[in-house]
Specification:
Layout lengths: L3 E4 L1 H6 L6 H11 L1 H10 L2 H6 L1 H5 L5 H13 L3 H12 L6 H11 L18 E4 L5 H6 L6 E3 L17 H5 L8 H12 L3 H16 L4 H7 L1 H4 L2
Parallel strand pairs: 1-2, 2-3
Helix pairs in contact: 2-3, 6-7, 7-12
Length: 227
């Protein structure tokens, strides 16, 4: 009977690979300073590099709303102000997977096995949460025995990364409100101006772009999981 082995970043770190979020930080700092500055402009820097994916789902949108107010004062075309200013500012969210791919492909995987081949061998199958192909290059595991559940960098797949703040993603009402607070929230939504609504829509698109849909990932990979 085959065993199912599940691997995360600790596996790569045990092999001495530079795969921490702090390593990603250093890579984009050295290779794309503009992208780095956009990331930390709206996401608290310490949170970002301690828990990158969670931080994507909890950024403070107050500053970007203030920026949009400045756009309103500086342009005559209101549609551009609210539809373009915020979307342009948050465009970095669509580039995260691209720069993540570049970084992972730059990681040197020339290393020796750190786990016994009695465990890591082709008699078993693997769910790999890493983007690297350490299993294939270091342990000669055949590709068909590995599910790269978030994508495999060296096959140039779009890598999956993101938050799981489902309430931000779905635009649902806040949780744990009192009845009075809920009434106030509903009233605010009903009386929201076009400009305010447009701001919320653009920020909502950011949360969609940076969302990791785990249900969809599981459904897509059921074939591997039930074989």
């Amino acid at each position: 009977m085959r065993n199912l082995i599940i691997l995360g970043n600790g596996f790569d770190l045990a092999h001495g690979l530079q795969t921490k979020y702090s390593d990603f930080r250093d890579y984009i700092w050295n290779n794309n300073r503009e992208f780095y500055e956009q990331l930390i402009k709206y996401i608290f820097e310490d949170d970002l590099w301690n828990g990158f994916e969670n931080a994507l789902g909890s950024f403070d949108d107050g500053e970007i709303k203030e920026m949009s107010e400045a756009a309103y004062l500086n342009y005559d075309d209101n549609y551009y102000n609210y539809d373009r200013a915020i979307s342009d500012e948050l465009e970095f969210s669509t580039k995260i997977s691209e720069y993540l791919l570049e970084w992972v492909k730059s990681i040197d995987i020339k290393t020796k096995p750190a786990v016994s081949r009695k465990i890591i061998n082709n008699d078993n199958i693997f769910i790999n949460f890493n983007y690297t192909d350490t299993l294939e290059k270091v342990y000669d595991i055949v590709n068909n025995n590995i599910l790269y559940i978030h994508g495999r960098a060296l096959s140039n797949e779009r890598l999956i990364i993101g938050h799981h703040n489902v309430f931000a993603y779905a635009g649902k009402q806040p949780l744990l409100l009192t009845y009075q607070e809920m009434d106030e929230w509903i009233e605010y939504q009903m009386n929201m101006s076009w400009e305010e609504s447009e701001k919320e829509n653009q920020i909502g698109r950011y949360f969609v772009d940076t969302y990791k849909d785990t249900d969809q990932i599981i459904a897509r990979n059921k074939g591997f999981l039930i074989r």
